[in-house]
Design a protein that fits this description.
With 118 residues, the chain is mainly α. The protein is 79% helix and 0% strand. It has one domain.
């Protein structure tokens, strides 16, 4: 029987997370021209590493942050005071942090759409 240790399971989980995120972003944000997978993989690896360093452990929280970065850019998301506060609050449960990032993304997207309409 195949036995995997915790480190191997973590690596498999990280790879699966990156693949799922890449697939989602390509399907929903790639438009008519799919995103370049090599570039997308490198960017996702950097975003996931940043999330892990900031204490985001759940796939939902990491996915929410990655989606926000894909929509608005790493710099805008990373420098936003609300996001900085969410990432700094390591005492909150992962689900709360994920929901706060999702709410921030929804509000930012709503503001973006409102500005597009003029």
């Amino acid at each position: 029987m195949l036995e995997l240790d915790r480190k191997q399971m973590t690596a498999i989980g990280e790879t699966q997370l990156r693949n799922n995120l890449a697939d989602f972003l390509n399907r929903h944000l790639g438009g008519k021209v799919p995103l370049q997978l090599d570039q997308l993989d490198a960017e996702l690896d950097a975003v996931i590493a940043h999330c892990r360093k900031a204490g985001l452990r759940s796939q939902r929280a990491v996915a929410a942050y990655a989606l926000a970065c894909s929509l608005f850019g790493n710099e805008r998301v990373g420098n936003d005071p609300s996001i900085i506060g969410i990432l700094a609050d390591r005492s909150s449960p992962q689900i709360d942090r994920a929901l706060l990032i999702e709410m921030w993304t929804a509000a930012a997207y709503s503001d973006y759409r409102r500005l597009q309409r003029g």
